[in-house]
Amino acid sequence: MNRERKRIVLAFGTRPEAIKMAPVYLAMRQHPHLSPTILLTGQHREQLDQAMAFFGLQAADDLEVMTDLPDLPLLAGRIIPAAAKALRRLQPDYLLVHGDTLSTFALAWTAFLEGLPFGHVEAGLRSHDLGQPFPEEANRRLTATLSDLDLAPTEAAKANLLKEGKTPERIVVTGQTGIDAIRFAAEHGTLPPALPPGPYVTVTLHRRENWPHLRALAGGLAALAREFPGHTFVFPLHKNPLVREAITPVLEKIENFVLTEPLGYGSMAALLARSDLIITDSGGIQEEGAALGVPVVVVREVTERPEGLALGFLHLAGTDPIRVARVSSALLKDPSLKRKLEKTPNPYGDGRAGQRIAEAVAWRLGLGARPADWRFRPGSPV
Fold this sequence. Notes:
Rossmann fold, seven-stranded parallel sheet, 45% helix
């Protein structure tokens, strides 16, 4: 192995993580002193492979620890010893983990036990409620306790870390890597050819804390679709059978509701960009909607992305199906909102987060200067 270039292992396992780590990997490939390598845990196998292929990524190692319906303690117990063996094989100089999945914290704990320093991409997001989202809020807080470098997407995320006692010199505000990715994907992706004509409303629901509400939420969405027969509602269904069993019986016979298999990232980006409204409990899609200038109804009681609320990109509707339908209806009846948002600067990033992260890691390894923090400036060009 050429030790003139430091080996950086990027470890992740879900489709959203692959999408958000792709800009980091590609930026590190261009850096003169860094050699990036991918270690997969493999939670979302089929969807993960699609995202990896879209960005031209290949893994050096794969833990293959996933089961169809994982028991979280069992999954953690499988990841940690497998990750320790993989890290010993790969011999990295530095590790990067992303966000808030169970594998993120399991890998962080493994790295700590192995004496391997690691950086946390998308550090500092907080809902301030350990139950929402579950278990993600705990995963990201615990990961931050152990990290050597906190790569915060926004100033608000940095402020959260400072309140928790993190060292300010080791926090770099980078912008959100998902903005880098969605811009590329929206430009290069295409709508699925079999999709009926728009205008579109895109729906995604899958979060664990929303499982008890899914059938009722589907009923609210059915009423919304009947109210707007001129819109095509597109719902790419999560692979989890619990989600499908709750959603499908309620929505499969609604004429203007299209239930699909998960879309490839390029097709999903094209659909989001063409949508008049997004209804979701996803975290990343909240930021993607903002990047594309599309209003987002957030089907959660809290969000860890408050910047979009203040600017009108995000609308927190909770999990009551009547309220979700009412908020969505009001937004669809206001076509001027989307035109306004398309001209509003994006509070989540400028498309250069991957480059800043590569520079920040090189700095921590003594190979360059610390990058300047990214700052959101209202009114500046996006």
